């Protein structure tokens, strides 16, 4: 604005033709272009008549912006490694949430879609808040989704850092990054106080709230918010100074009742994003997982000083299809890579029975847990203390963390504060040990300190470890924290209760917890966690009974849903793979005919499971001469994700063809070739 008076009338006319221009700049340029040689006098006159607006920009915004940029650059640049961030510079442009994203656990989403999003359009980070075409307008409400550990917070950090350096979105004057972890610490807030919490040095929050300049409000981690957003019953508020419940404040901002001129960017895990009505979302994007080259670069980065170890870890990941698919998530890839590296370094120290490369989730997380106990990490190797000594010093803390993890999981709570830690008997002075810093992370905020598990699956593993241990000694239902419930005598009753709860949960948030619980009964994991699991010689008896419970769940599931597939994963974790191996062998030899009937739910469930994890289905899924209408109907939800599907010689009639036609039109469908 200060430099505009130097323009000639002709230059001002050229600028005048440019579009879009901020309102105040447009007004000044109009004066200059219209008054010719008297421009300076006219400009002075304009400044006097429009004093407040220009003062706002020159005297208020510039110092505030400068302080804001300095603050963001000092806070956002830490921990951003350029090599690993290339994936985040292009986001997938999606039309909305799929059924799977709304209903399934994050891990099941990745397993079912085999880590391949069904999207062809993408948008570069620098255009995230720009119009898609010359005739459209910038999005006001943008939502970016991604499963746990995919890099949502890292993406926000990258954007904020790039903006502060002037590399992206230069038309935005203020970027206000906030996390729902911070918002959890407030009971009530006004729109102006919200701005102040993101801009501590702001002197005129009312100007930003009134939309005098373009502002981007970032709300990171909706899935961590303590209160569900209720757009149907939220109280309308249009006063930016009025303090209201934080969830009401967020709904009013998203609806446009408050901060109408601000752009809002929300990040979330997919299931939590469905809280925001689709009609209010102007643009939805999704963070994609690793491709093959990116996964290799990531693993190489983990073991920079040991290329042999890096290639061995990658070789083991690639050899296990289901593990490879999950390793498209950076957070999971880091846990798996660390665990396999730990095994490769210490495999010679173990008995022959225990020296098997970790393949199941439970085995991988058991090795990760042992690393946390010993403090022996790939990037900082040191002599580990004897495991017995570590067990004695850490058992109480692990028990408390496990209880926190379990009851947090039941309440869908993934962020904890000091009052939570004290309520569960966790000694905060012990939280500096390797054990806790690798399992539970700490974040100091303006008003309090937040604690959260390093990945959702870490919380689920510790919850299963706690439940397994507690189920051996308690007589009350562990799902009722108060302890007032009908007695449940014996481990098997507790195990059955957990399986039933998982099957009945509409949000599927206990599925991976039950997988870990099943895996703790496997002989391999029992050896790995020797000293942590009670009842050293009891697990074999419990294991056979637990297998019976899991198979009983399959015999009643006529439609082969993702619940049945997860139950097959539980059997795999518990190392009962006979059914799956028999069906896989029949697939290899093309002798499935006669094995698949509606009454044989075990084989049908095993087939649905194998469609996700077996190498036999990697290039082509061959289901020739083995399906009828009922079996085909029961498998529909799994056939959706077979890229190359062969169904010839099945004597299909019109009813099956109609079924297949409906499948091909489903949004989630990934079938590319159908024979």
UniProtKB/TrEMBL annotation:
> What is the protein's major site of localization?
membrane
Question: Which domain of life does the UniProt lineage start with?
Answer: Eukaryota
Q: Which ranges form a coiled coil?
A: none
Q: Does the keyword Disulfide bond apply?
A: no
Q: Which GO terms describe its cellular component?
A: cytoplasm; plasma membrane
Q: Does the keyword Acyltransferase apply?
A: no
Domain CARD positions: 1-62
List, alphabetically, the PANTHER family matched: NACHT, LRR AND CARD DOMAINS-CONTAINING (PTHR24106)
Bilayer-crossing regions: none
Query: GO:BP terms for this protein?
Result: innate immune response; regulation of apoptotic process
Q: Which residues form the NACHT domain?
A: 140-272
Q: Cite a single GO MF annotation.
A: ATP binding
Where does this protein reside within or beyond the cell? Cell membrane; Cytoplasm
Kindly give the PROSITE patterns that the UniProt entry links to this protein: CARD, NACHT
Q: Which UniProt keywords apply?
A: ATP-binding, Cell membrane, Cytoplasm, Immunity, Innate immunity, Leucine-rich repeat, Lipoprotein, Membrane, Nucleotide-binding, Palmitate, Repeat
Query: What name appears for this protein in its UniProt entry?
Result: NLRC3 protein
């Amino acid at each position: 604005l200060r430099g505009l008076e130097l323009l000639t009338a002709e230059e001002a006319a050229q600028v005048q033709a440019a579009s879009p221009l901020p309102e105040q700049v447009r007004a000044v340029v109009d004066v200059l272009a219209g008054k010719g040689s008297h421009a300076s006098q006219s400009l002075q006159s304009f400044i006097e008549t429009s004093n407040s607006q220009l003062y706002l920009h020159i005297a208020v915004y510039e110092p505030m912006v400068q302080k804001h940029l300095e603050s963001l650059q000092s806070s956002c640049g830490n921990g951003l490694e350029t090599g690993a961030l290339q994936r985040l510079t292009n986001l997938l442009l999606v039309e909305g949430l799929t059924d799977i994203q709304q209903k399934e656990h994050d891990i099941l989403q990745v397993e079912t879609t085999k880590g391949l999003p069904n999207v062809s359009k993408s948008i570069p980070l620098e255009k995230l808040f720009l119009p898609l075409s010359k005739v459209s307008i910038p999005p006001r409400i943008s939502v970016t989704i991604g499963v746990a550990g995919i890099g949502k917070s890292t993406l926000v950090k990258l954007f904020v850092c790039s903006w502060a350096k002037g590399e992206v979105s230069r038309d935005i004057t203020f970027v206000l990054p906030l996390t729902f972890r911070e918002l959890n610490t407030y009971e009530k807030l006004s729109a102006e106080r919200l701005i102040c919490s993101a801009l501590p040095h702001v002197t005129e929050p009312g100007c930003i709230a009134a939309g005098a300049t373009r502002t981007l409000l970032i709300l990171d981690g909706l899935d961590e918010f303590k209160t569900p957003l209720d757009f149907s019953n939220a109280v309308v508020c249009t006063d930016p100074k009025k303090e209201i419940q934080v969830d009401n404040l967020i709904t009013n901002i998203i609806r446009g009742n408050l901060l109408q001129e601000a752009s809002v960017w929300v990040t979330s895990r997919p299931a939590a994003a469905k809280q925001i009505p689709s009609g209010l979302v102007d643009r939805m994007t999704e963070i994609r997982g690793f491709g093959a080259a990116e996964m290799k670069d990531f693993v190489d980065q983990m073991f920079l000083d040991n290329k042999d170890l890096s290639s061995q870890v990658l070789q083991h990941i690639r050899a296990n299809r289901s593990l490879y698919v999950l390793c498209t998530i950076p957070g999971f890839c880091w846990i798996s890579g660390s665990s396999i590296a730990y095994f490769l370094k210490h495999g010679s120290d173990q008995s022959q029975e225990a020296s098997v490369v970790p393949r199941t989730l439970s085995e991988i997380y058991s090795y990760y847990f042992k690393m946390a106990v010993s403090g022996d990490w790939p990037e900082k190797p040191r002599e580990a203390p004897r495991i017995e000594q570590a067990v004695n010093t850490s058992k109480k803390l692990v028990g408390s963390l496990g209880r926190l993890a379990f009851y947090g999981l039941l309440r869908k709570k993934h962020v904890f504060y000091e009052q939570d830690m004290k309520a569960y008997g966790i000694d905060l002075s012990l939280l500096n040990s390797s054990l806790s810093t690798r399992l539970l992370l700490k974040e100091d905020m303006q008003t309090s300190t937040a604690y959260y598990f390093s990945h959702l699956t870490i919380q689920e593993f510790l919850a299963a470890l706690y439940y397994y241990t507690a189920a051996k000694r308690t007589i009350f239902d562990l799902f009722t924290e108060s302890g007032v419930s009908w007695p449940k005598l014996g481990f098997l009753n507790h195990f059955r209760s957990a399986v039933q709860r998982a099957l009945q949960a509409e949000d599927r948030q206990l599925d991976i917890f039950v997988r870990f619980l099943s895996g703790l009964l496997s002989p391999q994991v029992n050896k790995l966690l020797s000293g942590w699991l009670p009842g050293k010689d009891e697990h074999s008896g419990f294991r056979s009974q637990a297998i019976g419970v899991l198979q009983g769940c399959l015999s009643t599931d006529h439609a082969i849903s993702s619940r049945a597939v997860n139950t097959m994963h539980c059997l795999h974790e518990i190392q009962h793979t006979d059914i799956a191996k028999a069906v896989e062998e029949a697939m290899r030899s093309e002798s499935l005919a006669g094995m698949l009937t509606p009454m044989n739910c075990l084989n049908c469930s095993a087939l649905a499971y194998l469609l996700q994890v077996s190498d036999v289905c990697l290039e082509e899924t061959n289901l020739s001469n083995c399906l009828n209408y009922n079996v085909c109907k029961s498998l529909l939800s799994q056939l959706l994700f077979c890229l190359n599907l062969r169904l010839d010689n099945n004597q299909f009639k019109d009813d099956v063809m109609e079924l297949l036609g409906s499948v091909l039109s489903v949004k989630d469908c990934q079938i590319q070739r159908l024979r």
